[in-house]
Automatic annotation (TrEMBL):
PANTHER family per UniProt: KTR SYSTEM POTASSIUM UPTAKE PROTEIN C (PTHR43833:SF7), POTASSIUM CHANNEL PROTEIN 2-RELATED-RELATED (PTHR43833)
GO biological process: potassium ion transport
Record-given protein name: TrkA family potassium uptake protein
Molecular-function annotations in GO: monoatomic cation transmembrane transporter activity
Family matches, as InterPro entries: NAD(P)-bd_dom_sf (IPR036291), RCK_C (IPR006037), RCK_C_sf (IPR036721), RCK_N (IPR003148), Trk_Ktr_HKT_K-transport (IPR050721)
Top-level division of the source organism's lineage: Bacteria
Length: 227
């Protein structure tokens, strides 16, 4: 099967990280930026690096941008350039267009003009960091929608020795325990009478506000203080 080809536009911190990660995963990556210096920096890292102003339709045509399977637009600050670039790429018939948004309004516009996926890296990272700050035992947070996510955390003291039923997570917090990891094994069908043991890692899905409430109420502040 032919390897997927990616083009990443905008070599700021986010765009260059995406380009580098894709390249390390073995994909063909074209990096594009209007700044010649940034292109020179990326040249050794990606398959191809070209300098072009992507608000210029002819320049994008000349690059053959429509032949790429996925195009990521990571122009952040210059919202006008981001919107124009997205519009042109959509017109040129790029199969999959992923665009970084600076804020909600920018994201809304991008969705309306045909971006297949709008991403908010700063906001997502902020949310992740917030979970880590509230609960140092949160190992990971995955956003499912802007309002919902999955958290993974090591069972705090207040949960240990109690069963899922006793903790009453579903009724009290409207969250669901998806799985419990223990000793390298993942149980994806935990039973209500399963006892939480020290060192168990719980994977829970719910609304962000409920997850945060659960994290706070299970006495994680005490752990923060004792650190
Ligand atoms: P980050 O926070 O990820 O560093 P940012 O949101 O600050 O990025 P910018 O620095 O504004 O994003 O833009 C990222 C890159 O996009 C810059 O290297 C800039 O040169 C490039 N860029 C901006 N406008 C265009 C354009 N019209 N054509 C091509 N590249 C562009």
């Amino acid at each position: 099967m032919r390897k997927k080809q990616f083009a990443v536009i905008g070599m700021g911190r986010f765009g260059s990280s995406v380009a580098q990660a894709l390249s390390e995963m073995g994909f063909e990556v074209l990096a594009i930026d209007s700044d010649e210096e940034r292109i020179q920096d990326m040249a050794p890292i990606v398959t191809h690096a070209v300098s072009a102003d992507t608000t210029d339709e002819e320049a994008l045509r000349a690059i053959g941008i429509r032949n790429f399977d996925v195009v990521v637009v990571a122009i952040g600050e210059d919202i006008q350039a981001s919107i124009l670039t997205t519009l042109i790429l959509k017109d040129l018939g790029v199969p999959k267009l992923i665009v970084k948004a600076q804020n909600e309004l920018h994201g809304k516009v991008l969705g309306k003009i045909g971006a297949d996926r709008v991403i908010y890296p700063e906001r997502d990272m902020g949310l992740r960091v917030a979970h880590h700050l509230i609960s140092p035992s949160v190992l990971d947070f995955i956003e499912l929608t802007p309002e919902h996510g999955i958290i993974e955390f090591e069972a705090p003291g207040a949960m240990i020795g109690r069963t899922i039923k006793q903790l009453d997570i579903r009724a009290k917090y409207q969250c669901n325990v998806l799985g419990i990891k223990a000793g390298g094994h993942m149980d994806i069908t935990p039973m209500p009478d399963q006892v939480i043991r020290s060192g168990d890692v719980l994977v829970i899905v719910g609304a962000n506000k409920d997850l945060l409430r659960l994290e706070v109420e299970f006495d994680v502040q005490r752990e923060v203080k004792s650190r």
